[in-house]
């Protein structure tokens, strides 16, 4: 139906004007000869009103969300919703359910809070134990460091005692006045302390057939033609020292490539660097240092560099690496490490067959080739 609320006596006019008139079931036609009681005319509007009302849509009660299942027309719905007594029990029942649900939620919240407090206490206890363990480890490290320093001092004292008992080397030359032979003998002594001692004593002496000139300090070597030779004696002792000392490397004397020249040195990691290479490969670092000629030489450093581990057996093959065009910038601090060979040579290959490790010594050769072909110190 159209849902229109009509007054009694206006149904005929409404049915003529209403657009949903066709939906109203038609009454059977009345025969002219049929006699009808006088009351039919008065009952006709009531029948039409009830028919139109039956076609109106029904609506649910506004408390259907609380459990009320009533549905009816507008007038019936108004009468139903005005009856609060029928809805009071629904409200009480629903409120009781809400209260029970709230109690369950509060109980679960308290349980979670207790679990969180227990977890917080456990984490706090773990943190306290970790800090105590860290302090114990730090104290243990300090004690071990003191022991290592004490052992290092003892080793140094023993080395000094041993070197003081060695016979003095005569540097005055032989019958023919050849001082270079005695110099070579001093340079090839097996112990590093003795080499350092005689290096300071041989200030101003030159090897006749070598490119290395000692100018007064073991770490102040000048190589006029850019070729530097270095023998590391007592290899196994140096390797053990690296394993237990704070510094895990062994450095060569520093040298200049000429006058003026660049200031360089080698740094060896005899036990290797990195977890994957430690104990498997010897590493070599090229160290570029600040020098007294830095303002006179061109930067960046572009001279070809070759680092060689010499094979000491007859007709052997050296291990050699070359940097053709380095482009190293000028050091802004005491030194920089512009190049690293992490796998210079396998330690097993180095230590077997007596090729590279001979008489507990290894030999290196560094060649610095000038860009122009001639060093300034060799001109004139």
UniProtKB/TrEMBL annotation:
Please note every region of biased composition (Polar residues).
34-43
Q: Annotated region Disordered: where?
A: 20-48
- Return the protein name: Putative tnf receptor-associated factor 6-like protein
Q: Which SUPFAM superfamilies would you find in this protein's record? A: TRAF domain-like (SSF49599)
Keywords assigned = Coiled coil, Receptor
The record, for PROSITE patterns, names: MATH
Coiled-coil segments on the chain, per record: 95-136
Q: Name one GO biological process term.
A: regulation of canonical NF-kappaB signal transduction
Residues covered by the MATH domain? 225-368
Q: Name the species this protein comes from.
A: Ornithodoros turicata
